[in-house]
Amino acid sequence: MPVQTTPDWVSNPLNIVDKIFANDSTGYQQDATMLRAAVEAAFLGRIKSDTSDYRHLVPLINGLSKEQLQAIPTNSLVRFRCMVRDERPSSYHQGFLQVRQLNSGDIKAVCAMFRDGVVLEMGEQVVAFGERGALSEMRSLKCVSLPVESAWSRAIHEHGKSTSDKPLDPSQPVLIANFFAEAGASVAVNDAVELFGLLSFDDPMLPSPERGAGDSPAISAFPVQHDEMRLNVLLYEDLLHTHPALPLDKTRILSMSREDGFSFVRVRESLMELLKFCLNGDALGAEYLLLHLISSM
């Protein structure tokens, strides 16, 4: 069986962003929402098509420990199924830079969106922050992993019981999701969403494995807190449900009721029998419990 390699758009998503920006850097600097829309369309086209869904190619970080998350290369594309717990006060980021090559004197526009900062090449110097020097508003949401996406919950769904005798780690990823250029305006506290974005831990102004202490300087796009996990969001989807065993496609869920041998009535009857058994035969109590469970999904 051939080994599945990680697509370049997953391992180096900023390459895609920079190529899109280079196609119309002048226009995108005048309207950052155009760039955001173009980036969303480019990655949405890679994640799914009319006939297939390729989101499985993007690593899911739910259930990973802090050490496992830190092992993921900075600015890799990941996905996170989460619930919005809180919203931070509005902040601002530097969307674009004007950079001069000192040897030639040439000036180029550099995109600073969707990243914590920009690393300058040797012999480069920032001469202006965007065409007008204006900052753009950035929305930041504190997001927590859905309980159903935890490692122990998935083990139960897949195997019917926990696969480990060791105590289960109750900690789950908590991160700050940054939305750029008016994205995420409809996302509210307690909403369940699936985020696709660039994972980052490091302070862009500090040395990292990719950039040593003596390398080119970095320009921070916005202030960051040390040791805080961040996800610079490229696109997101509202979750129709939070159950990992059910398809995300609404038409697929509806079509399940038409498949041979499948009946929601029989499913309900089976649930009622199970709940009645748990409640020592109390049919009315089973009805109330089933309605309560459905109402809290």
Q: Count the strands?
A: 11
Note the total helix count.
9
| Main pleated-sheet profile | 5 strands, mixed, barrel
In which order are the strands of the major sheet placed? Answer: 1-7-8-11-9
Amino- and carboxy-terminal Cα gap: 39 Å
Multimer state: single chain
Strand content: 15-25%
Topology as a string of helices (H) and strands (E): HHHHHEEEEEEEHEEEEHHH
Coarse shape: elongated
Q: Radius of gyration over alpha carbons? A: 23 Å
Question: What structural class do the secondary elements suggest?
Answer: alpha+beta
The residue-averaged pLDDT reads: 81
Percentage of residues assigned to helices:
25-40%
Low-confidence stretches: 162-168, 206-214
Keywords, please?
five-stranded mixed β-barrel; 11 strands; alpha+beta; 297 residues
Walkthrough of the structure:
This protein is α+β, with helices and mostly antiparallel strands and 297 residues long. It is 29% helix and 24% strand. It has helices spanning 8-11, 13-23, 25-30, 32-47, 66-70, 151-159, 250-256, 264-278, 283-295; strands spanning 77-87, 91-93, 96-101, 107-111, 117-119, 124-128, 136-145, 174-180, 192-200, 218-220, 230-238. The strands form three sheets. Strands 1-7-8-11-9 form a five-stranded mixed β-barrel. A three-stranded antiparallel sheet has the order 4-3-6. Strands 5-10 form a two-stranded antiparallel sheet. Helix 2 (13-23) crosses helix 4 (32-47) and helix 8 (264-278) crosses helix 9. The radius of gyration is 23 Å and the shape is elongated. The two termini are 39 Å apart. Mean pLDDT is 81; it is low at 162-168 and 206-214.
